[in-house]
Prior knowledge:
The chain is of the alpha+beta class. It has a single domain (about 5-185), classed as Alpha-D-Glucose-1,6-Bisphosphate, Chain A, domain 4, CATH 3.30.530.20. Helices cover about 20% and strands about 50% of the residues. The protein contains three helices and eleven strands; from the N terminus they run E-E-E-E-H-H-E-E-E-E-E-E-E-H. Strands 1, 2, 3, 4, 5, 6, 7, 8, 9, 10 and 11 form an eleven-stranded mixed β-sheet that branches. The longest helix is centred in the last third of the chain and has 26 residues, at about 160-185. Mean pLDDT is about 90; it is low at about 1-5.
Amino acid sequence: xxxxxxxxxxxxxxxxxxxxxxxxxxxxxxxxxxxxxxxxxxxxxxxxxxxxxxxxxxxxxxxxxxxxxxxxxxxxxxxxxxxxxxxxxxxxxxxxxxxxxxxxxxxxxxxxxxxxxxxxxxxxxxxxxxxxxxxxxxxxxxxxxxxxxxxxxxxxxxxxxxxxxxxxxxxxxxxxxxxxxxxxxxxx
Length: 188
């Protein structure tokens, strides 16, 4: 079950496979980056639309509280705000991030996200998350199936115990894929 994979200049170690999702970790400057790889039924444009639609976020983002589009630079470059409920005694979190969509190859859509400061963003509700990177690689395999690779490295801010961060790194990609699959089925 455990394996190693190099990609994006990171050394990814496979830590589990569940529900058709392979989960990997990579250490970067003492922090854990996470990766999930799996197939999702649907079309890449539908998935991109879902990822960028604040009205749908509550349906698939765990602990989602609120969110909005802060600024639209163009159709492929936007600034978003999201806030999240956190379990006691952890403070609620929020994030302001820039999202850029790239269509480098005919069948592949690549989304890059990272935290930024923006004057139009709401004031923080507790602790501001720092997304170092979040990436989606979406490859159309056939008319209604895509291979999706999700990668993320962030600093949640504040004092969160290591055991909780480790648990999230192993479980979040599976939860994310299950939620995206369910939401895309509901869109049909």
